[in-house]
Amino acid sequence: MSPKSKYYPLFKYLNEQPDTDLIELSLAEIEKIIGKRLPTSARVSRAWWANSPTTQGVAWQEAGWLIDSPDLENQLVIFRPARITYRVSPIRKSVGWTGDEIKALREYAGWSQQELANRLAVRQQTISDWEVGNHTARRSMSKLLQMLAKEVGFPYDTNTGDAK
User: Fold this and answer.
1) Which of 24, 48, 136, 151 is most buried, with most CB under 10 Å away?
2) Three-state SS string across the chain, please?
3) pTM higher than the cut 0.90
């Protein structure tokens, strides 16, 4: 990494950190480290944070780090030591569906568990597991459930996640 690079201070900072844990930095902290404002693309594009041979990517990769998870909504970036091969993803706080709400939607629409499963392209057992609380629907599935609720006129508040 060339000391003349805009991102050399980030390289130096990461190179000095122990590689025993994840490092979470806000975009403001990264700007403080490099002594300059990040480009707009760093704030709006996950691609800017790719572990690729870009100028900024070389800074963290040559220091022995990889970007694990850019969270642009919260203006945070999580670095992980390159020697760690697993991926750690932060838990997102998003509106989800409870088992009772899924069952209420299904009954409101007059569907069996199998019919709802067919609409969501999952197994009937998955619907059963959600309804009894063995598992919860993932965020992407929650979006599909919201779409189905809207389609059948099920009174569901997408801001709070509550069935009315």
Assistant:
1) 48
2) CCCCCCCHHHHHHHHCCCCCCCEEEEHHHHHHHHCCCCCHHHHHCHHHHCCCCCHHHHHHHHCCEEEEEEECCCCEEEEEECCCCCCCCCCCCCCCCCHHHHHHHHHHHCCCHHHHHHHHCCCHHHHHHHHHCCCCCCHHHHHHHHHHHHHHCCCEECCCCEEC
3) no
